[in-house]
Amino acid sequence: MSHICNVIFYRRMQCVQGNNLTATTKFFLLGFQGSPSVRISLFCFFLVVYCGTICGNLLIITLVSTSKNLHTPMYFFISQLSVNDIFLSTYIAPNMLHILLNNGGIITFTGCICQFYFFSTAEASECFLLTVMSFDRYVAICNPLRYTSIMTDEYCAKLSVTCWLVGFSIILIDTFTISKLKFCGPNTIDHFFCDLLPLQEMSCSDIFILRLEIFFLSIISVIIPTIIIILSYFNIIVAILRIPSSTGRHKAFSTCSSHLTVVSIFYWTMFSVYVLPTKVETLNISKILSLIYTVFTPLINPMIYSLRNKDIHKALKNIIQKHKNVMIRLGASHSV
After folding, report:
1. Are 69 and 314 in contact (CB under 8 A)?
2. Which 3 state secondary structure label does DSSP give 189?
3. Residue among 54, 49, 43, 53 nearest 105 (CA)
4. How far does Cα 315 stand from its chain's mean position?
5. pLDDT tens digits for 77-130?
6. Is 183 exposed, middle or buried (0-12, 13-18, 19+ CB in 10 A)?
């Protein structure tokens, strides 16, 4: 711990005393260090995960957009979450694969800031989308008679656009502040992407304003959505317990179980990375935890929403049957 403090102090003294030092214009991302065989194995594994993420989420988007029985608010927001998961994974995975192949990789200062911005906007947008989805389930279970009149297509579109716009807007504040920081010390980042914590550690500028901004933005993008989700599910649980039949309670809860699982995984990893008690623990564990919400969560989400979902299964069977019919027709026309 004392060694880390001495390094940070040395970097800050360099910035204060050495105004003529060349500013850092590039960073070196360490990624996952190891032998070539280990890195190639990890590369193949993460490549399969990334391809599975893209295919799984594209399948959800295709099914929701083409199947009439999935044209409901719940599936509309699931498709929006799939779009966000594709963006999130694409911001991180390709560069991580490049770093694995080359045992590290160089990223420019501009590229690092851009990666941080787009990654953070995807994370913030996911927080808002998960909140809107919990509100949708709250209306469906607690106000079923008014559900269709409240969750109209226009209202759902407005909620979705708001999630994206707010996510893209509020992160601009942090990104602008980080872009003004000075990085005059060693330019090695012990991570596989430009995350907030490593950038804070490397900066030799005063980061008090940045921490203040992060605090207020965390309230908007994390704390408030978390409170809304908790209140929504509290009311949902109360409403479910009032249902007289066990079959009705099971059916009502089954519509929320997938979303609750996704929320639990996402927020658990987010809080584990950014609310750990000491910097040493964060540096040692953050890469593994970051993998969960940047690489694995976008893969797991479509699996959770589709594995036990009868509507998704039915829509998939219909599409497969349509393709079979088309192939049969094509084969018959060629034979003639």
Report:
1. yes
2. strand
3. 43
4. 26
5. 999 999 999 999 999 999 999 999 998 999 999 999 999 999 999 999 999 999
6. buried
